[in-house]
Amino acid sequence: METGTPNAAGALKDLKVVEFGAYAAGPCIGKYLANHGARVVHVESRQRPDGFRLEYPPFTGNTPGMNRSGCFALFNDSKKGITLNLKHPAAHPAAIRLAGWADVIIENMRPGVMGKLGLRYDSLRETNPGLILLSSCNMGQSGPRANHPGFGSQLSALSGFSHLTGFPEGSPQLLYGPYIDFIAVAYGAVAVLAALEQRNRTGEGQCIDLSQYETGLHFIAPALLNQEVNGQTAERDGNRDPQAAPHGAFPCRDDMWCAISCWDEGQWERFCGALSRPEWKTQPHFSGLAARKEHETELEAAIGTVTRQWDAWELMRALQEAGVRAAVVNRMQDLFTDPQLEQRKVWRKQLHPEMGSRNYRFGSFELSETPGEITGPAPCLGEHNALVFKSWLGYSETEYQHLVEQGVID
Q: CA nearest 100: which of 185, 41, 29, 37?
């Protein structure tokens, strides 16, 4: 497939999407739509580029640059990139024309910003009644904290994850990365598809108000239910689980680790056999879940002494063959050579003009009849201005050059 060519066989091959958004929570939704055939236009400006371009490492060669960001690349493959300075007084007609072309608009600005830019949904749908607008922001468009600032770390804290992460004697721990953003992405993609289904039946679009904060609550449902039903507040407990022992990550050779859990007595006995420690099965302080939980610190120390002698992969295989749940703790470099991910073509290479050949991550599902594809690298800033404004939106060369000279297309 030619680099940058939309996936003509994709399930969404007739869909047109415009992104007035940045970072992860909005653009990642557009990425998944693009991977399945949609034409997705990512809107930025030189005055206000996507924050991932310059604010977050890694950068190719550890040298920051507008077109050298790994974060930006990961969430924007297969799209077209344009620069439209929405704050320019003459930019509004071009923005309206872009919105009229689109089936879907995705934005993750603060509540009210789209309105200030003259892009309120109720006015946009007057000329494009089938338009679907997805607004994805921290708290949603309403409520006493609708304008609450912050990123994924703050949302993870508000959603209860940080309170549950860490050791009992320590402080709450922030999760790695913008975890809630990526939960919201899954909900956002489903919401767009549901709105498209409704439009197919009625011809009417709709506005989707997605609260990233609220999406996180689904992933702590057991703790919420325990609070609601039993009045019991879940607390931090490291890697431990009240229903399993052992339950944790244990050291192996070469600074590797293996995550192991035993959920019943049969698994515990098979675990002891696989580690050639049959005596553990008969020791009173390890006999039964209650006893192992009471002596869990001693149990974990004893297991760690044994697992340190093992290669992590050999330990994982031995335990799995014995019917015990176990998995190697992968490091970042291991994920790029994992045979499971390789066989399923999760990593797909694209050649970027400044970053060179890089792996891009495909989604976690594949459609048998309309397979998805990564059709091009992330766009350089403004790379597709001429294509989008002239070929897709129908501006003449004279009109296009006038917008460039004015600084509307910057």
A: 41
Euclidean distance between CA atoms 316 and 314, whole angstroms: 5
Q: 313-360: per-residue pLDDT in tens?
A: 999 999 999 999 999 999 999 999 999 999 999 999 999 999 999 999
Q: In terms of Cα–Cα distance, which of 98, 100, 107 is closest to 29?
A: 107
- Cβ-count burial 183-194 (b if 16+ within 10 Å, e if not): bbbebbbebbbe
98/371 Cα distance (integer angstroms):
28
In the predicted structure, residue 118 carries a pLDDT above the cut 50: yes
Domains of the chain listed by start with CATH number = 16-218+344-406 (3.40.50.10540), 247-335 (3.30.1540.10)
Measure the CA dihedral 51/73/211/364, to 10°: -170
Find the distance separating the first CA and the last CA of the chain, reported in whole Å.
31
Distance CA 258, CA 408 (A): 55
Model pTM score:
0.93
Q: How far apart are CA 58 and CA 10, in angstroms?
A: 31
CA torsion angle 373 70 408 90 (round to 10): 80
Total count of residues recorded for the chain: 410
